[in-house]
């Protein structure tokens, strides 16, 4: 059922993935619908040399002076005008803004923000927006060499590494960044720990939808 819904709601722009309890076929009274939207036409890279493809937007990782586990994403190239709309100009460069992205989604009746999710006022839908780096980034190397006694198993772990890293626009807290709220607006959380149940379900069951 979830696969059918995901296939029907996915478009050329994003992949829709049902996660959380319903994603694991656990249906309980009052259970909300957790959905992850992975943008297909935005690629993230650490490389200085990027081989541009048509109809793609490219963002480059910038982690200098950024709290661990977060990054700024500098716009390198974009074919799409709507990507420019969610960027802010800083020192003559353009950075992806999690605040602008969420403000844009708020217009679609997703008014409540908590963590990586946007929710409707009735608490029926939780939506997490995701970007993806197809390559494994150095900041995540510690996750590879950690104890293998924890989830996931070897095969799932190798599949995760093969498919790269997710980037999730999270809520920002002014107190944790002394520089400026403008920079904080641009910071994107790198999902390096897969303990979160939504990410766990996503990686374990839906990697095949991401393609290569």
Description:
The protein is α+β, with helices and mostly antiparallel strands. It has one domain. The chain is built from 8 helices and 11 strands. The strands form 2 sheets. Strands 2-3-4-11-10-9 form a 6-stranded mixed beta barrel. A two-stranded antiparallel sheet has the order 5-6. A hairpin with a 2-residue loop joins strand 7 and strand 8. It is globular and about 40 Å long. 27% of the residues are buried. Residues 21-30, 171-184 and 192-212 have low confidence and may be disordered.
Structure described in brief:
With 212 residues, this protein is α+β, with helices and mostly antiparallel strands.
- Sketch the major β-sheet: 6 strands, mixed, barrel
**Rg calc:** 17 Å
Number of structural domains:
1
Q: What fraction strand?
A: 25-35%
Oligomeric state, counting identical vs distinct chains: single chain
Order of strands in the sheet with most strands: 2-3-4-11-10-9
Envelope shape: globular
Helix segment tally: 8
List the topology elements.
Layout: H1 2-9, E1 14-19, H2 20-23, E2 33-45, E3 57-62, E4 70-78, H3 81-85, E5 87-90, E6 93-96, H4 98-106, E7 112-114, E8 117-119, E9 125-133, H5 141-144, H6 154-163, E10 165-168, H7 181-186, E11 187-191, H8 197-206
Parallel strand pairs: 2-3, 2-9
Antiparallel strand pairs: 1-2, 3-4, 4-11, 5-6, 7-8, 8-9, 9-10, 10-11
Notable characteristics:
six-stranded mixed beta barrel; 11 strands; 31% strand; single chain; alpha+beta; 8 helices
